[in-house]
Amino acid sequence: MAETAEEKRQRLIGLAKQAVSKAYSTGEHSIAQAINAYNEIEKTRNLLHERVEEWYGIYFPELTLGSAEKYTRFVLSAGSNKKQASEEKLREIFGEGSKEMLTWIRQSIGAEPEESEFKALSAIANAELELLRTEKEIDAYLKDNVPKLMPNVSYLVDYKLAAELLSKAGSLNKLAVMPSGTLQLLGAEKALFRHLRSGSKPPKYGVLFKLKEVTEADRRSRGRIARLFATKLSIAARADAISRRFIGKQLRESIDENLKRIREKEKSMPPAREQHAAGRGYGGRQRQFSRRFRGNRG
Q: What CATH number did the domain enclosing 277 receive?
């Protein structure tokens, strides 16, 4: 007996529920939410720290530290009256640098904040440290779970960057079937649409700019290195989503070999200024005219 329209409807609803349940059982959507929360919290915490540093800088302008956490802990523990800070209390925060900190305190030209003002300042500092604790908890979650879901991708890049690629793609399966050129530009959507709309320079990379190999490379080689990583990450994503085989070591070795060749080529390249000057001749003017013409066509 053929099923009725209502039975067919109920069956399709049941299949849809099963598909949704299966999709969310992998944990990849939780990882995407976690990395988005991490980035938002980090941005908010940095803004709060800038406010703490600018505000307390009125009273201790000489205080310059590389660690935002140590700076904020000092403000909370000794900021109300820095002249009364003991070496023992400073040692808890700065370790061996406590003696140098005592010297800075004695030589400081700053006054001490009033009680009501310091209460408001310490509220911001406490909020910053609370966000930092939350950030560390999310980071621990990502560190434990991203390599389980994406062992190959997280072997090639930092686990937070792997999670960000997953979030930008939408799912691991979407990342796996994505062309390497699209993967390379994940996170640069605004720049890409601006290029398509106004003819501005096309972007060379998106979130892959966070790679140490890209940021530390010669400016002229960054696009090539980003393309190299995008190609290998695309293969790694397919292995994570489809074959479930670990091939990260071979991919990493291939990346290192190619990076070595790129760096050797960089040594033979002329300095950027010379290359720029070489492009000022007839060919350079012709290229500039072509770019201008293409930009004005629409």
A: 1.10.246.90
Which amino acid belongs to residue 52? V
Does residue 244 come out as left (phi exceeding 0), alpha (psi in the -120 to 50 range) or beta?
left
167 & 281 share domain? yes
- Residue 161 belongs to domain spanning: 150-296
DSSP codes, 57-93: TTT-TT---S-HHHHHHHHHHHTT-GGG--HHHHHHH
**What tens digit of pLDDT does each residue of 169-206 get?**
999 999 999 999 999 999 998 988 888 888 888 899 99
Counted domains in the chain: 2
In the predicted model, residues of the chain with pLDDT beneath 50 are 274-298
Which amino acid type is present at position 258? N
Considering the domain architecture, whether residues 125 and 160 belong to the same structural domain is answered as no
Taking 3-state DSSP, the helix, strand and coil percentages for the chain, each rounded to the nearest 5, stand at 80, 0, 20
Is 274 in contact with 282 (CB distance < 8 Å)? no
